[in-house]
Amino acid sequence: MNNKSKYTELIKTGAKRLGFLSCGISKAEFLEEEAPRLEAWLNKSMHGEMRYMENYFDKRLDPTLLVEGSKSVVSLLLNYYPSEFQNEESYKLSKYAYGTDYHFVIKDKLKELLHFIKEEIGHVHGRAFVDSAPVLDKAWAAKSGLGWMGKHSNLLTQQVGSFYFIAELIIDLELEYDTPVTDHCGTCTACIDACPTKAITEPYVVDGSKCISYFTIELKENIPTEFKDQLDNWMFGCDVCQDVCPWNRFSKSHKEPLFYPHPELLDMTKKDWDEITEDTFKKVFNNSAVKRTKFSGLKRNIEFLKK
């Protein structure tokens, strides 16, 4: 076994030991296919008020500009599909936000993996990325053979669907590279048909400025009144396109204790949410991704759903 094979195997074994669902590796290079797609998406203003998407255009497409001397992008998936769900008489929260903010959980795992790589292999320079830097996570995961991009623009796998986080290590180590898998969406249009705001404008294209997740998390201004009856009771995020996807019949519950919800969260009813205080918000969403929208943002969303 040559060093490339040996190191590749070592990294994938280390990722599995840390609880990652899967690990795929691709060559750090310019994402040629993604460049025109990203440019067209931005030109059509499908990013809405998410102005940060316009920044670092070149770095988004070329990891060698992000991490000097980088040779490989190690893509990792971490399952967040829960074993228990919210009370049906409740405003809805995206499943990824049930437990501790994934940024903290995954960053710790990535740091541990990078430390393990350095210990086992020697001097390896690299950086960890979790959804908060100009990295096209889904494109790299697809390039690394971890799944295909579904018509709802989420990464899909035949084995476990799409309820997982994507993260990367970009490192200056040459490894053996995986190849993309084939698309298995076929003629299915379940996600397109089910989207309450018709944000999936065509297969594989999502107008972010019409997405419920955008309205309830990213948008700082008031939610446009034209979407008044279209939010389907979602107060933070939205899982509709994933919930209706046939591949998510194969979702399996995660085993990450930090992703378990606060005991009170699942039993809360609409009445409880209507009457939520800032103290309860802080208690239920301590270290949660929901803190991103703040108490005032969550209240705004609930009020919009009530009217």
UniProtKB/TrEMBL annotation:
Binds 2 [4Fe-4S] clusters per monomer. Pathway: tRNA modification; tRNA-queuosine biosynthesis. TRNA binds at K220. GO terms for molecular function: epoxyqueuosine reductase activity. The keyword Metal-binding applies. It catalyses: epoxyqueuosine(34) in tRNA + AH2 = queuosine(34) in tRNA + A + H2O. Its EC number is 1.17.99.6. It is found in: Cytoplasm. It comes from the Bacteria. Its cofactor is cob(II)alamin; [4Fe-4S] cluster. Keywords: 4Fe-4S, Cobalamin, Cobalt, Cytoplasm, Iron, Iron-sulfur, Metal-binding, Oxidoreductase, Queuosine biosynthesis, tRNA processing. PROSITE patterns: 4FE4S_FER_1 (PS00198), 4FE4S_FER_2 (PS51379). InterPro entries: 4Fe4S_Fe-S-bd (IPR017896), 4Fe4S_Fe_S_CS (IPR017900), QueG (IPR004453), QueG_DUF1730 (IPR013542). The active site is at D131. [4Fe-4S] cluster 1 binds at C185, C188, C191, C245. Residues 173-205 form the 4Fe-4S ferredoxin-type domain. Cob(II)alamin binds at R60, D131, L155, I166, S213, C238, D239. Pfam families: Fer4_16, QueG_DUF1730. SUPFAM superfamilies: alpha-helical ferredoxin. Signal peptide: none annotated. Belongs to the QueG family. Catalyzes the conversion of epoxyqueuosine (oQ) to queuosine (Q), which is a hypermodified base found in the wobble positions of tRNA(Asp), tRNA(Asn), tRNA(His) and tRNA(Tyr). NCBIfam families: tRNA epoxyqueuosine(34) reductase QueG. Monomer. HAMAP family: QueG (MF_00916). This is Epoxyqueuosine reductase.
